[in-house]
Specification:
13 strands, 279 residues, alpha+beta, four-stranded antiparallel β-sheet, DC1, 7 helices, single chain, five-stranded antiparallel β-sheet
Length: 279
C-alpha cells in the first residue's frame, strides 16, 4: 500500500509533464514516502494519533483538518470525531525533490504555518493563506499547499478547455512572456485575482491556479462551485460603508428639506445654494 501511494504521487507530477518521453526522463521527480501505518483501508496519521482514519469517498463538502482548505470526494475520515483529511494531505511525503514549481531547492513538509503576526503567510501558487499543512523551502521563502503541489506545469482538461494549458511563471519550456495574474480574467471564475495563472497555448484563455485546484480537491467532480470564504476585509468594508450610508440617511431625514438638499449636494461635490437668512 505504501509503495502504491508513492507511485500515485509520482504519476500526478509526471502527468503534468510534456508528452515527449525524452523531456520526462530529463526531469525526474522523487517523492519520499511519509511514515504512515496502514491497515487495509484505515490509517493512523501523525496529526490524529488517537483514532484511526477510514478511507472513504463522499460527495459532501468538508474542510481538511490538515491544510484547512475545502475538499469533497476522496478523504480519510475519523469515525469518532470531526477530523478529515484530503487523501493527498494524508499521503504527503516529508520532502519534495525537484518539484516543477521549485526545482532548484528541496521542499520540506510542515504541519503548521509560519508565525507571522497579523500577516498570514501565503501560497506561492494560489496566493491563498497557508493555515495548516504546507511544503516549504528551507533556503528561500517559497511555500505552497499540498493541493497546489499536486498541480502540473501543463495540463489538458477537455471539460474545462479544449487546448493545453500551461502555467505562467512555472519551470516550463514556454517562451511566452509572463504577465501579472491580476490583469487577466479567468475563464472559470470570470474574475481577476492574484496567484499563478494557466494560459492556453493556442488562444487567450486563462485559468487561475486557485480555480484549477478544484480538479485535485474533488470540488469540481462533486459539483461544488463558489465555495471560497469571503474576504474578512472585504466584508468589513461593505458593512462599514452600509453603516455610513444608513447613518447619513438618518441625519438627512432629520434635517429640514432645504438644509437636507444642501447637505446631499455637498456630499456629491456640487455647490450648495446659499442659505436664506431671515431678517
Amino acid at each position: 500500500m505504501v509503495q502504491k501511494n508513492q507511485s500515485w504521487w509520482m504519476q500526478q507530477v509526471e502527468a503534468g509533464g510534456d508528452n515527449n518521453k525524452e523531456k520526462k526522463e530529463a526531469r525526474v521527480v522523487e517523492f519520499p514516502v511519509s511514515p504512515q501505518l496502514m491497515y487495509g483501508e484505515e490509517m493512523v496519521h501523525f496529526s490524529h494519533p488517537r483514532h484511526r482514519l477510514s478511507r472513504m469517498c463522499l460527495p459532501d463538502l468538508f474542510t481538511c483538518s490538515g491544510c484547512k482548505e475545502y475538499g469533497a470526494g476522496n478523504r480519510f475520515s475519523c469515525q469518532q470525531c470531526d477530523f478529515q483529511l484530503h487523501d493527498f494531505c494524508a499521503f504527503s511525503p516529508p520532502a519534495l525533490k525537484a518539484h516543477p514549481f521549485h526545482s532548484h531547492h528541496h521542499l520540506l513538509f510542515y504541519s503548521k504555518p509560519v508565525k507571522g503576526g497579523i500577516m498570514q503567510s501565503k501560497c506561492e501558487i494560489c496566493a491563498k493563506p497557508i493555515k495548516g499543512f504546507a511544503f516549504r523551502c528551507g533556503v528561500c521563502s517559497f511555500q505552497m499547499h499540498p493541493c497546489c503541489a499536486m498541480l502540473s506545469s501543463e495540463m489538458k482538461v477537455p471539460s474545462m478547455h479544449p487546448h493545453e494549458l500551461r502555467m505562467l511563471g512555472a519551470a516550463t519550456s514556454s517562451s511566452v512572456v509572463d504577465q501579472p495574474s491580476n490583469l487577466v480574467v479567468c475563464g472559470e471564475c470570470k474574475r481577476r485575482r492574484s496567484g499563478r495563472v494557466y494560459r492556453c497555448t493556442v488562444c487567450e484563455y486563462h485559468v487561475h491556479a486557485v480555480c484549477a485546484k478544484s480538479l485535485k480537491n474533488g470540488l469540481r467532480d462533486n459539483g461544488h462551485k463558489g465555495t471560497e470564504k469571503p474576504s474578512v476585509l472585504g466584508t468589513a468594508a461593505r458593512l462599514a460603508s452600509q453603516v455610513v450610508v444608513e447613518f447619513l440617511g438618518g441625519i438627512i431625514e432629520g434635517l429640514g428639506e432645504g438644509v437636507g438638499e444642501a447637505f446631499v449636494q455637498n456630499i456629491n461635490g456640487k455647490a450648495a445654494p446659499s442659505p436664506l437668512h431671515h431678517r
